[in-house]
UniProtKB/TrEMBL annotation:
MbtH-like domain segment(s): 4-54
TM segment ranges: none
Origin superkingdom: Bacteria
The protein's name in its UniProt record: MbtH family NRPS accessory protein
Gene3D superfamilies: Structural Genomics, Unknown Function 30-nov-00 1gh9 Mol_id (3.90.820.10)
Entries under InterPro entries matching the protein: MbtH-like_dom, MbtH-like_sf, MLP_fam
Database matches in Pfam families: MbtH (PF03621)
Coiled coil start-end: none
Organism classification: Bacteria, Bacillati, Actinomycetota, Actinomycetes, Kitasatosporales
Amino acid sequence: MNGSPFDAGEGDWQVVVNAAGQYALWRPHLDVPKGWRVVHSGPDRESALDHVERHFVMAVDE
């Protein structure tokens, strides 16, 4: 594989989240870092991004 495995492109994608509620796109062939868990697996990057958009809630100071 040339370049970064996180470059946009074809292939499966996952969404991982940590205890602080931070989300990241991840490739399924890579080990999930300690403290993170998979919350979505999909056939393409767009479905992973859609999952983050639907579930990520950003804290806003008032």
